[in-house]
Amino acid sequence: MQAELLTIGDEILIGQIINTNALWMAEELNSIGVSIKQITSVSDDKKHIKKALDEALNRADVVLITGGLGPTKDDITKITLCEYFNVGLRKEERVIDFIKENFIKRGIQFLPVHEQQAMILENSEILFNHNGTAPGMWIQHNSKIIVCMPGVPFEMKGIMSKYVLPKLKTQFQLPFIIHKTLVTIGLPESTLADMIAEVEDSLPKHIKLAYLPNFGLVRLRLSGIGKDEQILNVEIEDYASQILEIVPKENIGATEDLKPEEIIGKLLTNTKQTLAIAESCTGGYISHLITTVPGSSEYFIGSLIAYSYQIKINNLEVKAETLEKHGAVSEECVREMVSGIKTHFKTDFAVSTTGIAGPGGATPDKPVGLVWIAVAGPKGIVTRKLIANGERINVIERTALVALDMLRREILKN
Fold first, then answer.
1. 207 pLDDT higher than 90
2. pLDDT category, 220, cuts 50, 70, 90?
3. CA dihedral defined by 293, 296, 297, 303, rounded to 10 degrees?
4. Any residues with CB less than 8 A from the CB of 211 and at least 6 apart, and which?
5. Coil, helix or strand at residue 200
6. Is residue 95 within 8 Å of residue 159, measured between CB atoms?
7. Can you state the angle between helices 392-413 and 260-271, rounded to 10 degrees?
8. Are 108 and 84 in contact (CB under 8 A)?
9. In the chain, what is the greatest distance between 2 CA atoms, to the nearest angstrom?
10. Looking at the domain that runs over 2-171, which CATH code has it been given?
11. Which end of the chain is more exposed for a tag (fewer CB within 10 A), N or C?
């Protein structure tokens, strides 16, 4: 079964908010065997909404709409759907009672405009919103289903989880969709594709291979669809094993869909080793990534953002003469930084970064994007010089990814 997602609202199209709803909905639908045909965002315009809905219903079995159900004049989804289906609205008294009770608890005055929230399409089944005021609607139109939900993520997720997903599973005999992700590091996408071409060419029609590249890594996602979950799992695992036999082990970051910081977390947890970080140009970004992983307090001891010369000297024991002779953005400095943080925090591993993230700060021999990274472990210190192109945030993000991969390799060596 195929579904389309239709998100309504000018705020999405002008970049005022990010469309996180579509991402979450796609993942949840895919997990129950519903394939996503297309995701479309449209403006608060009746003609545009009707045209987009027409096209979606021609392509998909189910169309899920979010946004435009509020009580203000710019919320036109319900009115537009009434015109589209040539139906009126009916009032749901239990929604009014729920809103009044909720407003009393919060000390909010109930106004006539709030009654509009209780109006739903005559041809719809109500999907009660326990987290807000605008209910969802389930519409059966010929052989198609249209689901309309509020755009507030917390409210949409409640309706999807409690009503929409269970109803779809009950109403349709859905296939199994299984994904298997391998994270490869340090191999360009084209090199990787050439390396595993024979495996890719041998895939049956119901299994596809996708390349998901990012700076320094490529995620390989095997996706299969079928009626027998056990057989499908065996098939996908077999093709994943074939790929793992070809790709060098040092280039395999993980055999599941993990971020670099999650890979580091697993390695340090398994080896019961600890980590400290000293950051200059990355400004705490690597530490932020590390601490987004649940359980990171088991292995991450702490970090220091050493931006100024004085902090480098006083807190990391970087020599003043090192800074005078070589500057902060140098291999000599990054070595002393990583040694200092490892010694002070008494950890098994340490990472340090120093560089010029830009847009200013460059010199004739040290351009914007020049970064030095060091990793210290039980067997010594390794360093790497990096020239990262792009805006300031790009330099920081790329430095973090390279630093985490260097750390991964050192943990595996030790």
1. yes
2. very high
3. -90
4. 189, 192, 193, 218, 219, 220
5. helix
6. no
7. 30
8. no
9. 80
10. 3.40.980.10
11. C
DSSP secondary structure of 294-331: TTGGGTEEEEEE--SHHHHHHHH---HHHHHHH-SSSH
Pairing of strands 217-226, 275-279: unpaired
250 with 409: CB under 8 angstroms? yes
Architecture of the domain defined by 260-413? Alpha-Beta Complex (3.90)
CA neighbours closer than 13 Å in the CB half-sphere of residue 18? 3
pTM: predicted TM-score of the whole model, two decimal places: 0.82
* Type of residue found at 85: F
**Phi-psi domain of 109 (left: phi exceeds 0; alpha: psi -120 through 50; beta: other):** beta
The DSSP call for residue 160 is I
Query: β-strand 300-305 against 144-149: which pairing, if any?
Result: unpaired
Cβ pair 144, 58 in contact under 8 A = no
Provide the mean pLDDT of the chain: 95
Domain 176-254 fold is Alpha-Beta Plaits (3.30.70)
CB neighbour list of residue 15: distance below 8 Å, 6 or more residues apart: none
Give me 352's structure tokens. 């340090």
Element (H, E) at 223: strand 217-226
Nearest to 353 by CA among 299, 297, 294, 404: 404
Nearest CA among 136, 218, 169 for reference residue 31: 169
* Cα–Cα–Cα angle for 298, 300, 305, rounded to 5 degrees: 160
Whether the ω angle into residue 213 lies within 30 degrees of 0, i.e. cis, is no
- Summarize pLDDT for 339-398 with one digit per residue, the tens: 999 999 999 999 999 999 999 999 999 999 999 999 999 999 999 999 999 999 999 999
Alpha carbon distance 224, 233 (integer Å): 8
The 10s digit of each residue's pLDDT in 71-115 is 777 889 999 999 999 999 999 998 899 888 888 888 888 888 788
8 Å CB contact between 129 and 96: no
Cα gap 408→260, rounded to integer Å: 9
In the chain the first and final C-alpha atoms are separated, in Å, by 49
